[in-house]
Amino acid sequence: MVTALLFLSVVLFLDFFLVALLVEKSFAMFRSVLGTWIPFALIFASTYLTGAYVNKRVPPWARP
């Protein structure tokens, strides 16, 4: 969960500061559900599910 939130926060930070402020000079991109919010949800979901899958494959004695 922490890793998924960290990945999402990096993407949000870069989209907000680099793309919206420096490149587009507008926050209009955040009004698009299909172009912005669904990709954010997919980034979070894919990172979370990958971590959950990998965590189940690691034997309990090898977990930190």
Descriptive key words:
75% helix, 64 residues, mainly alpha, 2 helices, elongated, 0% strand
Structure description:
The structure is a single chain. The protein has helices at 2-24, 33-57. The chain has 64 residues and is mainly α. Helix 1 (2-24) packs antiparallel against helix 2 (33-57). The longest helix has 25 residues, at 33-57. The mean pLDDT is 90.
Helix content: over 70%
Largest sheet: none
Mean pLDDT: 90
Shape: elongated
What is the number of E strands? 0
pLDDT below 50 for ≥5 consecutive residues: which ranges?
none
Radius of gyration: 16 Å
Name the structural class: mainly alpha
List the helices and strands in order.
HH
The percentage of residues in β strands lies in under 5%
Distance between the termini: 16 Å
Q: What is the number of helices? A: 2
Provide the fold topology:
Blueprint: H1 2-24, H2 33-57
Care to give the gist of this entry?
Helix content is 75%, strand content 0%.
